Amino acid sequence: MITQSKTKNRFFHNNLYLYSLLLFLSILFSCGNYPPELKRIVSQVNFINNANGSITAELSVMFVADDDDGFEDIESFYVINDKHQVYWNVDCNNWITREVDDVKWIGYEHFITDSQKVPRPGTYRILVIDKAGERVEDSIYIPLIKKEPSKKDFPEIRYTDSSYEIEIKSKYNNNTIAFYDEAGKLIDAFSVSTGKINIKDLKKSKEIIDKCNNMIVSSYSNKYGAGLISKKLEFNKEK
C-alpha cells in the first residue's frame, strides 16, 4: 500500500510538473516572436516622363508577407545592395498597400538614387522585420539597363475637362491608367488600349470625378526592360 501510494504520488507530481511545463511553454509561444514570412516579391524599374522635360528612374518593390503574430506585427523592410553599399528603409507609416484578388501587397514604388538614375544592376536583399526584431530575407535581381528611353517612347495622356474624355496615345497595346486623390492615394486603376475612353463609363466614375486630383498612364517596354510612366497630370473637376 505504501509503495503503491508513493508510486501514485510520484506519478501525480511528475504529471503536475509536466502539465506546468507545457502550460508555460504554451503561454510563452502564444506570446509571439514568430518570424514573418515572405511569400512573393515583385520588382520593376520605372522611367518617369516628368512635366519639366526630364526623365528620371525609380525602383518599385512590392511583396506579400505574413506573420503568425498578425499582419500588423510587421514593422519595416529594407532593400539592400551589399556590393554597392546602397540601401533603403521603409517603415509601416510610409509604405503603401495594394489589395489584388483578396491578397494584400505592401511595399514602396518610388525608390530613387541620389542621381535619380537607374539603380545599379545586381542582387538586392529584401529584409522584412517585425516588432519583436524577428526577420526574414529574400532577394531580387535588377538587370543592367544599357539605354534610357527618349520622350517619344512614353505613352501620352490627354484629358478634356468639359466631356470627361481621356485620350491615350501609345505604341504599346497594354497600358494602365491610374487615378489618385489629393493625398496621393490610389482610387482605381484600369488596363486600357490606345484611343478614347470616358470617365463616366468607368466602374468608379463618381468617386474618380469627386476625388481624383491627378492621373498617370503607364506601359511596359520589353526593349528597355522597364516601365514607362507619363507623369501625373492635374485633374480639373471644376466645370
Summarize the structure.
This protein has helices at residues 2-30, 205-211, and strands spanning 37-49, 55-66, 74-81, 86-91, 96-100, 103-111, 122-130, 135-142, 156-160, 165-169, 175-180, 186-192, 195-198, 214-221, 226-234.
User: What's the alpha carbon Rg, rounded to whole Å?
Assistant: 26 Å
Class computed from helices, strands and strand pairing: alpha+beta
Helix % is: 10-25%
The tally of helices reads 2
Main beta-sheet strand count, sense and barrel state: 8 strands, mixed
Strand content: over 45%
Please state the overall shape, judged from the principal axes of the Cα atoms: globular
Q: Can you give the mean pLDDT?
A: 82
Q: What order do the helices and strands follow?
A: HEEEEEEEEEEEEEHEE
Strand arrangement within the widest β-sheet reads: 5-6-2-1-15-14-11-12
Question: N- to C-terminal separation?
Answer: 99 Å
Unreliable residue runs? 1-14
SSE diagram, text form:
Elements: H1 2-30, E1 37-49, E2 55-66, E3 74-81, E4 86-91, E5 96-100, E6 103-111, E7 122-130, E8 135-142, E9 156-160, E10 165-169, E11 175-180, E12 186-192, E13 195-198, H2 205-211, E14 214-221, E15 226-234
Parallel strand pairs: 1-15
Antiparallel strand pairs: 1-2, 2-6, 3-4, 3-7, 5-6, 7-8, 9-10, 10-13, 11-12, 11-14, 14-15
